[in-house]
From TrEMBL:
Organism of derivation: Hujiaoplasma nucleasis
Record's catalysed reaction(s): 3-dehydroquinate = 3-dehydroshikimate + H2O
Gene symbol of the encoding locus: aroQ
NCBIfam families assigned to the protein according to its UniProt record, in alphabetical order: PRK05395.1-2 (NF003805), PRK05395.1-4 (NF003807)
Family: Belongs to the type-II 3-dehydroquinase family.
Name this protein carries in UniProt: 3-dehydroquinate dehydratase
Length: 144
């Protein structure tokens, strides 16, 4: 299985950004952690990060054909990007939204995900393991 993993704005700052919420490990460590898990489980992952809404949309539009599934942490775009929502809706590949933190237990503005209704599943609040759980859901065929 080929999985596209997209990370939105400020996720590149992991390790220094709000460490009490997101932890002390860096973005590089997250990428290595996902890649190692993928290798052991024989799945191919491509991981892309951008701080720009349009770049995320361009990337998905340009490359989605090569993938069976997309795992996306849209960062703050989760809460207001109808453009990313529309982009995800346009394609029929399997889609999982992930978040390091539990957005439903934080500030009110984070409790709204405009992405939620256009993905097959959301995995929240498990730190780096949110990505691992998303990969597992795909591998176990739990998303039809
Ligand atoms: C986040 C939660 C968002 O509210 C926030 O803007 C992020 C990270 C998470 O992974 O918990 O950038 O998506």
């Amino acid at each position: 299985m080929n999985i596209l993993i997209i990370n939105g704005p400020n996720l590149n700052l992991l390790g220094t950004r709000e460490t009490e919420i997101y932890g002390n490990s860096t973005y590089k460590v997250l990428v290595q952690y996902i890649k190692k898990y993928a290798k052991v489980h024989k799945v191919s992952v491509k991981i892309y990060q951008s701080n720009h809404e349009g770049k995320i949309i361009d990337y998905i539009q340009k490359h989605q054909k090569k993938y069976q599934a997309i795992i996306i942490n849209p960062g703050a775009f989760t809460h207001y990007s109808y453009a990313i929502r529309d982009c995800l809706s346009a394609y029929s590949l399997k889609k999982i939204e992930v978040h390091l933190s539990n957005i439903y237990e934080r500030e009110d503005f984070r409790k709204v995900s405009v992405i939620k209704d256009v993905v097959d599943m959301s995995v929240l609040g498990k730190g780096f393991d949110s990505y691992i759980e998303a990969i597992d859901l795909l591998l176990k065929g739990e998303i039809k």
